[in-house]
Amino acid sequence: MARDSCLARVTAGVAVGGAVGGAVGAVYGTYEAIRNRVPGLLKVRYIGQTTVGSAAIFGLFLGAGSLMHCGKSY
After folding, report:
1. Residue 45: which domain range?
2. Counted domains in the chain
3. 51: which residues sit within 8 A by CB, 6+ positions away?
4. Which residues have CB under 8 Å from 58's CB, separation 6+?
5. For each of the chain's 74 residues, which pLDDT tens digit applies?
6. Whole-model pTM?
7. Is 40 left (phi over 0), alpha (psi -120 to 50) or beta?
8. Alpha-carbon distance 22 to 2, whole Å?
9. Residue 65 lies in a domain
């Protein structure tokens, strides 16, 4: 298979975007939870929400970018 299919490229873009977004969201969520002095176990919920939200947004945009570049050959 010399060239990847469009679906494989988009899937890889979503996966990489989700991983990068999750890492950034976890770091940012931890920082915000500590800075805002979120009490007790609500920190875990806050960090989780930030991580999942960031991963979803990054994955969406990286997948969309991969989809736009599918038809172009360089």
Report:
1. 40-73
2. 1
3. 22, 25, 26, 29
4. 17, 18, 20, 21, 22, 24
5. 446 788 999 999 999 999 999 999 999 999 999 999 999 999 999 999 999 999 999 999 999 999 998 877 65
6. 0.84
7. left
8. 31
9. yes
